[in-house]
Amino acid sequence: MVTANVPAILPVCKTVGGGNPFFSVQFCLDALGSDPRSADAGMNYRTHSLIAVDLLTANATSTAAKIESLIRRGGGRDDDDATARCLRSCQALYSGILQRQPGSKGAIQDEGQ
Protein backbone atom coordinates (compact mmCIF):
# COMPACT_ATOMS: atom_id res chain seq x y z
CA MET A 1 0.00 0.00 0.00
CA VAL A 2 1.45 3.36 -0.98
CA THR A 3 0.60 6.13 1.42
CA ALA A 4 0.68 9.92 1.34
CA ASN A 5 4.13 9.69 2.94
CA VAL A 6 5.67 8.31 -0.24
CA PRO A 7 7.09 11.64 -1.47
CA ALA A 8 8.99 12.07 1.80
CA ILE A 9 10.59 8.61 1.68
CA LEU A 10 11.00 8.23 -2.08
CA PRO A 11 14.54 9.70 -2.17
CA VAL A 12 15.60 7.41 0.67
CA CYS A 13 14.12 4.37 -1.04
CA LYS A 14 15.72 5.26 -4.36
CA THR A 15 19.10 5.49 -2.63
CA VAL A 16 18.88 2.15 -0.81
CA GLY A 17 16.71 0.21 -3.25
CA GLY A 18 17.62 1.56 -6.66
CA GLY A 19 19.27 -1.15 -8.71
CA ASN A 20 19.26 -3.69 -5.90
CA PRO A 21 17.89 -7.06 -7.09
CA PHE A 22 16.97 -8.10 -3.52
CA PHE A 23 15.50 -4.87 -2.17
CA SER A 24 13.46 -2.82 -4.62
CA VAL A 25 12.35 0.78 -4.37
CA GLN A 26 8.74 -0.40 -4.21
CA PHE A 27 9.50 -2.81 -1.37
CA CYS A 28 11.17 0.04 0.52
CA LEU A 29 8.19 2.34 -0.07
CA ASP A 30 5.77 -0.33 1.10
CA ALA A 31 7.81 -1.24 4.17
CA LEU A 32 8.81 2.21 5.39
CA GLY A 33 5.46 3.65 4.33
CA SER A 34 3.74 1.18 6.65
CA ASP A 35 5.35 2.81 9.68
CA PRO A 36 4.06 6.26 10.68
CA ARG A 37 7.50 7.27 12.00
CA SER A 38 8.70 7.54 8.40
CA ALA A 39 6.52 10.59 7.85
CA ASP A 40 8.65 12.62 10.26
CA ALA A 41 12.05 11.09 9.48
CA GLY A 42 12.84 13.14 6.39
CA MET A 43 16.24 12.19 4.99
CA ASN A 44 17.52 10.86 8.32
CA TYR A 45 18.91 7.49 7.28
CA ARG A 46 19.57 6.48 10.89
CA THR A 47 15.88 6.86 11.74
CA HIS A 48 14.88 4.91 8.64
CA SER A 49 17.42 2.22 9.55
CA LEU A 50 15.93 1.92 13.03
CA ILE A 51 12.47 1.64 11.52
CA ALA A 52 13.72 -1.08 9.17
CA VAL A 53 15.25 -3.00 12.10
CA ASP A 54 11.97 -2.74 14.02
CA LEU A 55 10.02 -3.98 10.99
CA LEU A 56 12.44 -6.86 10.50
CA THR A 57 12.20 -7.78 14.18
CA ALA A 58 8.40 -7.81 14.06
CA ASN A 59 8.39 -9.90 10.89
CA ALA A 60 10.98 -12.36 12.16
CA THR A 61 9.18 -12.70 15.50
CA SER A 62 5.88 -13.44 13.76
CA THR A 63 7.48 -15.91 11.36
CA ALA A 64 9.37 -17.68 14.17
CA ALA A 65 6.11 -18.04 16.11
CA LYS A 66 4.40 -19.53 13.06
CA ILE A 67 7.24 -22.01 12.56
CA GLU A 68 7.08 -22.98 16.24
CA SER A 69 3.33 -23.47 15.94
CA LEU A 70 3.76 -25.71 12.89
CA ILE A 71 6.35 -27.80 14.72
CA ARG A 72 4.14 -28.13 17.82
CA ARG A 73 1.15 -29.17 15.69
CA GLY A 74 3.17 -32.00 14.20
CA GLY A 75 4.54 -30.43 11.04
CA GLY A 76 6.90 -33.27 10.20
CA ARG A 77 6.09 -35.93 12.73
CA ASP A 78 9.46 -37.60 13.04
CA ASP A 79 13.11 -36.64 12.88
CA ASP A 80 13.61 -38.27 9.48
CA ASP A 81 10.76 -36.37 7.89
CA ALA A 82 11.89 -33.73 5.36
CA THR A 83 9.24 -31.28 6.56
CA ALA A 84 10.44 -31.53 10.15
CA ARG A 85 14.05 -30.98 9.07
CA CYS A 86 13.07 -27.95 7.01
CA LEU A 87 11.01 -26.44 9.82
CA ARG A 88 13.85 -26.94 12.32
CA SER A 89 16.27 -25.37 9.86
CA CYS A 90 13.99 -22.34 9.43
CA GLN A 91 13.52 -22.18 13.18
CA ALA A 92 17.31 -21.99 13.66
CA LEU A 93 17.67 -19.28 11.02
CA TYR A 94 14.94 -17.08 12.47
CA SER A 95 16.24 -17.63 15.98
CA GLY A 96 19.63 -16.37 14.79
CA ILE A 97 18.05 -13.29 13.24
CA LEU A 98 16.24 -12.47 16.47
CA GLN A 99 19.36 -12.99 18.56
CA ARG A 100 21.28 -10.52 16.40
CA GLN A 101 18.60 -7.84 16.22
CA PRO A 102 19.44 -6.05 19.50
CA GLY A 103 23.03 -5.72 18.31
CA SER A 104 21.90 -4.32 14.98
CA LYS A 105 19.69 -1.73 16.59
CA GLY A 106 22.37 -0.88 19.12
CA ALA A 107 24.98 -0.39 16.42
CA ILE A 108 22.71 2.03 14.55
CA GLN A 109 21.94 3.97 17.72
CA ASP A 110 25.58 4.06 18.81
CA GLU A 111 26.67 5.37 15.42
CA GLY A 112 24.68 8.53 16.05
CA GLN A 113 26.41 9.38 19.30
UniProtKB/TrEMBL annotation:
InterPro entries: Invertase/methylesterase_inhib, Pectinesterase_inhib_dom. GO terms for molecular function: enzyme inhibitor activity. It comes from the Eukaryota. Keywords: Disulfide bond, Signal. Residues 25-99 form the Pectinesterase inhibitor domain. Belongs to the PMEI family. PANTHER family: OS01G0111000 PROTEIN, OS02G0537100 PROTEIN. This is Pectinesterase inhibitor domain-containing protein. It comes from Dichanthelium oligosanthes.
